[in-house]
Amino acid sequence: MARQVVRAGTVLWRVHDRNTSAENLPAEGAVFSADRGCAVIQSLLPDPEFTSEGRRVLSGRGLEGKVLSAVKTTRELLVFSAESPVLELARDDVDGARWPSSQAWPERELWFSGVRVKAGTFSVLPDDSFGLDTADGVRRLKELLAPYRVRVHARASRPIVFLNYRTAGGTEEIMRLDDELRGRLGDDAVFRDHRSLTAGDDYASKLIECVRAARVLLAVIGRRWENVYDEDGRRLVDDSSDWVRREIAEAFRAGVFVVPVIVGVRDGLIRERLPKEIRRLADLQFLHLRHRSTDADVRNFVDDLFEQVPILKRR
User: Fold this and answer.
1) Would you give the distance in Å from CA 303 to the centre of its chain?
2) Are the beta carbons of 4 and 71 closer than 8 angstroms?
3) Which of 10, 163, 187, 300 is deepest in the core (most CB within 10 A)?
4) Where is the signal peptide (predicted)?
5) What is this structure's pTM?
6) Is 3-151 assigned to CATH 3.90.175?
7) Which architecture, in CATH terms, is 161-313?
């Protein structure tokens, strides 16, 4: 097994929690890279999914509390060359291991044992280190990761897309749509009630607040959307307390861009069969999404959505 020397004075990069130090290693060791981009990708995107554009997405939530630090070695370190990640040592004559990066080829990663590598082996270069969850950190990350086709999203201060739908029509398409939009815009940029609301939230006020704050509301309309009835035989859409109706009406009042999304085979909405406050919905040009859509169908749909909705296309 080939051994290699990491010379004293070598600059390495490591992503770590803000409440830990870059130069002191935990007992289980830590992973470094001589390339900044590789250090970020391997730490925060070890097994990424790709969008239909062939890009990886790094969400703001994954950046919280993280720091990218530069350190310089103060002595020579001996590592052995491996073909895949090694996070423990089977021999005591080396300090760590080195292997090809799986996500940032042709770069390599380095792992150093927290037992073998003692305090003082690394010195931090503070001028080259920065927090990843700040506005400046996100800006620097975007520049750094652009060559790797990684899109970086800061945590959204408000939702960009609000998903409006009836659970009675099934939620399979909603889940896929939510996943694809979050992959492109970031987790916090897409509001879906059952995922976005947390314990203790005031359900009603949170829904209205997020509708008003959104840039786009997608009104997902299934085959029976306007013909779902309550236990007394009344159409839900005729009930002023129906949340699907309330969200759409609030979006119109707040000037949110509303896009009807027809799911499956059905005709468009009939204006006269809708409550007055949401009749505009029947006049809007709709997009179509196949019933029981595959992941590819949803990716194509979102491509079309971004192309046709200027607010999203500029993101």
Assistant:
1) 17
2) no
3) 163
4) none
5) 0.61
6) yes
7) 3-Layer(aba) Sandwich (3.40)
